[in-house]
């Protein structure tokens, strides 16, 4: 399963807010064996959100959109997702009933709070007010991290791919000296390799099975100066 993540908000683009939602979602999707192919940040603009959602919906198995839900002037995500599918925003009875059960009457809320794309599946917001929605394979979630995480967990079983296994080896050598070994490693084993330099070089080896990942990691250990080696 391939997925794309779209995070909405001007505050992300100017650096006022860290994009922790994307990081969290990438981790949870990786846990499920889902491959995240794109992470995109877009402004609070209907046309731009709709364009990106439309494009990614055509290219990937699922699209997760976070942010821009609610009653304020810059909360335009639902309108944009509706536009991407050529649908109207209409009052959703299920969302209204759920909020009523939480003690919110129509007088307590801006009317548009329960307006969702026609024919969508509403998602209850257990940690807040603004409901989410599923439109075909596009999942629209809140931007507040606690709300987003709880809502994602309510649909997490709908995201499933091929689990992978990862082993990390800390190598005490310059990254440039490892390039030929990485080539040999990928020729010898069915793995992907990432290298992340810092005080050491973290070599991340990923494979479809734990055995393959560990055998490849041992191959690296035997041919490298490790961070905890005495030399």
TrEMBL record:
<dbReference type="InterPro" id="IPR050101">
    <property type="entry name" value="CinA"/>
</dbReference>
<protein>
    <submittedName>
        <fullName>Damage-inducible protein CinA</fullName>
    </submittedName>
</protein>
<dbReference type="InterPro" id="IPR001453">
    <property type="entry name" value="MoaB/Mog_dom"/>
</dbReference>
<dbReference type="Pfam" id="PF00994">
    <property type="entry name" value="MoCF_biosynth"/>
</dbReference>
<dbReference type="InterPro" id="IPR036425">
    <property type="entry name" value="MoaB/Mog-like_dom_sf"/>
</dbReference>
<feature type="domain" description="MoaB/Mog">
    <location>
        <begin position="4"/>
        <end position="162"/>
    </location>
</feature>
């Amino acid at each position: 399963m391939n997925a794309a993540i779209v995070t909405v908000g001007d505050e992300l683009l100017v650096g006022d807010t860290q994009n922790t939602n994307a990081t969290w979602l990438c981790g949870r999707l990786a846990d499920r064996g889902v491959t995240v192919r794109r992470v995109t940040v877009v402004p609070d603009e209907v046309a731009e959100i709709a364009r990106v959602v439309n494009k990614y919906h055509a290219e990937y198995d699922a699209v997760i959109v976070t942010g821009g839900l609610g009653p304020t002037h810059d909360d335009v995500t639902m309108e944009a997702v509706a536009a991407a599918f050529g649908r109207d925003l209409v009052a959703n009875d299920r969302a209204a009933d759920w909020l009523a059960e939480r003690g919110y009457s129509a007088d307590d809320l801006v009317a548009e709070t329960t307006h969702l794309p026609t024919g969508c599946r509403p998602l209850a917001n257990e940690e807040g007010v603004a409901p989410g929605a599923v439109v075909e394979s596009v999942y629209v979630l809140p931007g507040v991290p606690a709300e987003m995480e709880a809502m994602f967990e309510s649909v997490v079983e709908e995201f499933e791919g091929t689990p992978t296994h990862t082993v990390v080896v800390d190598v005490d050598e310059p990254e440039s000296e490892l390039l030929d070994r990485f080539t040999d490693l990928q020729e010898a084993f069915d793995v992907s390799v990432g290298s992340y330099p810092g005080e050491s070089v973290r070599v991340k080896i990923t494979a479809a099975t734990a055995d393959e990942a560990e055998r490849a990691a041992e191959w690296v250990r035997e041919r490298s100066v490790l961070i905890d080696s005495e030399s």
